[in-house]
Amino acid sequence: MLSLHGAGIGKEITIGTACVLSQDVVDTPEYRVPRSRIDDEIYRLRAAIAAARLQLIQIRQNIPAESPPEAAGFIEAHLMMLEDPMLSQAPEELISYQQINAEQAISMQSQSLIEVFEQMEDEYLSSRGDDIQQIAERIQRNLMGIEDVSSASLTEEFKDPVIVARDLAPADTMALKPSRIRAILTNLGGPISHSAILARSLGIPAVVGMHVATSYIQHGDKLIVDGRNGNVIVAPDEQTLKAYRQLRRSDREQARQLNAIKKSGSVSKDGVRVTLQANIEMPRDIRAALNANAAGIGLFRTEYLYMNRDNLPTENDHFNAYMRILRHLGKRPMTIRTLDLGSDKTIDGSLEAGSNPALGLRGIRLCLQRPALFIPQLRAILRASAHGQVRMMIPMLSSLNELHQVFDLINELKRSLRKEGTPYNSKIKIGGMVEVPAAAISADLFAPHLDFLSIGTNDLIQYALAIDRVDDEVNYLYNPLHPSVLRLIDMTVRAGDKAGIPVTMCGEMAGDVESLETLLGLGLRSLSMDPANMLEIKNLIRRTDISATRERTHRLLNGLH
Predict the structure, then answer these.
(1) Of the listed 19, 78, 318, 506, which one is catalytic?
(2) Given a cut of 60, is residue 24 above it in pLDDT?
(3) Would you identify the CATH topology of the domain 35-144?
(4) Quick one: pLDDT at residue 486?
């Protein structure tokens, strides 16, 4: 019996049989190409890229009906990346100037691009290096004449397959029968990698970023996969199997109980109502939010609109995306966060990383400096406000001067829309995100000018404690309940109360069961979170006497436990 660990996806336990996909990386051949053969080598590279394109198109044409829609989107993204000059033309220049073979050129160029992505602060963008790796490996296999292994035929071997792979590319996804998969395990990836997104779409547990899954797990091994904490037990004994089967029964019973309160109110034992909204990344995520009976969308991250494309999204691109969500929300509100990219996140190839991206040109700073990014989105948000309860939220505010610049721009766009005769809500609510300590300390200065405040704890905690939560060497210091963090939250809530405006929280802390009582004790009455956490948080609220949490919260504010 062996225990392995990674990042758990999904709150479920499954027991199944290992189905190991052969995805070992083949050593890249390296050799010098004579000048007389450069044209032939470039032709060989182009042929391999063309073959990769045809393979992906064929996969797209044969997508099984039961496959989740996300998988098809990944195929489209890979096809778009194949057209990018950074992957299609740059390797040709390496072949010409350095006289290296095509395999080595693809390897060098892809690794250079992956390193750029890995340095990005945004977790979603940094994980996109996986796409580059998968595309590069497909081209490499074509260059070396290596055929893909059929994952579909492998999974037919067992009635309860647990997919074990180095990584799960979109092409593998298309070949699988989703209804048969019990779980997914990968060496690579993180919480928002393709494998993780696929697992969430299928509603099955997964453990990603295991590093050694394909080294220690053999095809046909019995496995216990705990998506709650990322534990995987290989070849468990009968006693362990019995214990986990009982635990799984208990979890399923708890899930049934949580489902029973889906339509119940989010009201504490002492009668305090707490509003629970959903954070979403893309329009398709609205399904999960509605399934959890969210009171609305408290945070719609719009960065995906700028990804995997050669040009900036148009005003209509933004507007159509917002309308796809509004059509499902009815009278429920949707809070759209304006673009929150940073100087380390390339949009159109013209941005370069600063020496310290986390403290550089990002969020509203970037938008104010580059109106071409900002204006189409602002116009689209204003137009969408005529069709539902749309709210606008400004990220990374740190000074009143920034806020006044935003208001001047919005007022100018309102005048333009009026002149055009384009409808919009003249009283659209505009809020600010408190994610820089300076904004929390000066929340009493911001609040009188805004309709609401929203606390983004992911950045607030990192800035307050000077740690990077994805850095293995210091992430043990990441503490949402640190007195300094709680005091910044307390200052923000008090400022909102004094100004008579609502304060919500949309960071991960809002969906953390360990932090809930403290947040309620601080006076927060509106939380926005991943839809997957909503029912568990609602259940805890219904069991909590908020008046009894204040003494403990006071102790935590003063560094006492």
Answers:
(1) 506
(2) no
(3) Enzyme I; Chain A, domain 2 (1.10.274)
(4) 95
Q: How confident is the model at residue 106 (pLDDT cuts 50, 70, 90)?
A: very high
DSSP states along 409-473: HHHHHHHHHHHHT----TT-EEEEEE-SHHHHHTHHHHGGG-SEEEE-HHHHHHHHHT--TT-TT
- 13-20/222-226 β-pairing: antiparallel
Q: What is the largest CA-CA distance in the chain?
A: 83
Contact 304, 281 (CB under 8 A): yes
Prediction pTM value = 0.70
Q: Lowest mean pLDDT of 159-163, 450-454, 484-488, 495-499, name the range.
A: 159-163
Burial of 360 (0-12, 13-18, 19+ CB in 10 A): middle
List the Cα angle 338/342/344 in 5-degree steps.
155
Q: Does residue 336 or residue 557 have the better pLDDT?
A: 336
Here the tokens at position 560 are: 């006492």
Residue 506 annotated in active site: yes
Between β-strands 161-165 and 183-186, what pairing exists: parallel, antiparallel or unpaired? Answer: parallel
DSSP state for residue 461 in the 8-state scheme: H
CA separation for the pair 115, 391 (Å, rounded): 36
The one-letter amino acid code at 4 reads: L
* Cα–Cα distance for residue pair 317/308, rounded to 1 Å: 14
Tokens of 321: 């995306």
Residue with the two structure tokens 């990968």:
186
Q: What would the two tokens of residue 11 be?
A: 């709150």
Confidence of residue 3 (pLDDT cuts 50, 70, 90): very high
C-alpha 223: how far from chain center: 28
Q: What pLDDT sits at residue 148?
A: 60
Active site residue 328: no
Least confident of 268-277, 310-319, 332-341, 550-559: 550-559
d(CA 495, CA 450): 11
Residue type for position 114:
I
Are 409 and 367 contacting, i.e. CB atoms less than 8 angstroms apart?
Answer: no
Stretch 481-492: mean pLDDT:
95
Q: Which of 194, 219, 367, 554 is catalytic?
A: 194
- CATH tag for 261-557 (out of 3.20.20.60, 3.40.50.150, 3.40.640.10, 3.90.920.10): 3.20.20.60
Residue with tokens 């590319």: 169
Q: What is the pLDDT of residues 221-264, one digit of tens each?
A: 999 999 888 999 999 999 999 999 999 888 888 888 888 888 89
C-alpha distances out from residue 173 to 26, 138, 399, Å: 21, 15, 46
- What CATH number should be reported for the domain whose range is 2-22+157-256? 3.50.30.10
